[in-house]
């Protein structure tokens, strides 16, 4: 059985029902995420972009940390718009480094390898297509230089807190003493701002969530009636947990593939995504518990987003 089908069935047979947000990103999902990022309400991308645009030289110096050469590894590189500011700066500073983007999407890697060296003269790009930790291991076999790892965009927020702490620990174990990481984290702020970012007025976020049901219909031959589910965003300002649900509007049974049937009660939720928000203190604690030392905080002007630099202890 394919992994997508297996994970969908496991999630929908679990209590509470849930689906994995990594499956949001098919072609239509990619496009909807672009529209979310361009919406007035969704601030994280703009905030982190501002940090990379306005504090490039400081970022470059901090990541270099006095070493002459290194490999710059990016987990989940995407279109690398933010990191390209840093790449340009490092090339202009004549730093001896190569760029190793890691991404789950083959297309993304192909695109970066083709286009980035044209855009940034003198940049060497070597992409790795696959899961983060497996590919990080590959970059080590490929080159034994010091590693500087970027994990941007608050992608760490897609994990529940306990999983994020475990992720940081695993990351630390796969790094060496002089390595360094830069992690982008969305911060706790006025709950109104966060709620709006995950409930934009044009409805892109709503479509983004419902698109996964459409994808399951298409790829797994299911019969979800999209109109019978409603997007419900929530944010808890105490825990910082920002969650998106789809609510079943009636008692119904959905077929998936040939032989699987999922029963929904009226008002039963499917947990679709978590976008965890942290305080600065909480991120420092995450670093310390994982065996890192938080050495520098880069903020945007509003202090809404944090790019934290963690050394290995
Ligand atoms: C790409 C995971 C950082 O959680 O803010 C945007 C995805 N979901 N709007 C986030 C997302 C709804 C985004 N990340």
UniProtKB/TrEMBL annotation:
The keyword Aminoacyl-tRNA synthetase does not apply. Residues 5-310 form the Histidine-specific methyltransferase SAM-dependent domain. Keywords: Methyltransferase, Transferase. It comes from the Bacteria. Gene3D superfamilies: Vaccinia Virus protein VP39. The keyword Zinc does not apply. InterPro entries: EgtD_Methyltrsf_superfamily (IPR051128), MeTrfase_dom (IPR019257), MeTrfase_EgtD-like (IPR017804), SAM-dependent_MTases_sf (IPR029063). This is L-histidine N(Alpha)-methyltransferase. The lineage of its organism: Bacteria, Pseudomonadati, Bacteroidota, Sphingobacteriia, Sphingobacteriales.
């Amino acid at each position: 059985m394919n992994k997508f089908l297996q994970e969908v069935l496991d999630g929908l047979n679990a209590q509470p029902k849930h689906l994995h947000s990594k499956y949001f990103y098919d072609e239509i999902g990619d496009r909807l995420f672009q529209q979310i990022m361009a919406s007035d309400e969704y601030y994280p991308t703009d905030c982190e972009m501002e940090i990379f645009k306005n504090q490039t030289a400081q970022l470059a110096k901090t990541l270099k940390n006095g070493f002459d050469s290194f490999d710059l590894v990016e987990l989940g590189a995407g279109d690398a718009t933010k990191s390209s500011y840093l790449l340009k700066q490092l090339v202009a500073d004549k730093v001896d480094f190569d760029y190793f983007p890691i991404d789950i999407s083959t297309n993304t890697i192909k695109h970066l390898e083709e286009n980035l060296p044209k855009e940034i003269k003198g940049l060497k790009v070597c992409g790795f297509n696959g899961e983060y930790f497996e590919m990080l291991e590959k970059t080590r076999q490929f080159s034994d230089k010091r590693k500087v790892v970027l994990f941007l965009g608050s992608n760490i927020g897609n994990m529940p807190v306990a999983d994020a702490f475990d992720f940081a620990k695993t990351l630390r174990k796969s790094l060496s003493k002089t390595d360094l990481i830069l992690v982008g984290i969305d911060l706790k702020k006025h709950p109104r701002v966060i709620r709006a970012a995950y409930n934009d007025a044009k409805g892109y976020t709503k479509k983004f969530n419902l698109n996964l049901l459409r994808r399951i219909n298409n790829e797994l031959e299911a019969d979800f009636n999209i109109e019978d589910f409603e997007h419900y965003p929530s944010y808890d300002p105490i825990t910082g947990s920002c969650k998106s649900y789809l609510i079943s509007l009636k008692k119904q049974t959905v077929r998936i593939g040939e032989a699987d049937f999922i029963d929904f009660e009226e008002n039963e939720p499917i947990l679709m995504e978590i976008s965890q928000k942290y305080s600065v203190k909480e991120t420092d604690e995450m670093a310390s518990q994982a065996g890192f030392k938080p050495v520098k905080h880069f903020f945007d002007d509003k202090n809404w987003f944090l790019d934290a630099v963690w050394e290995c202890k």
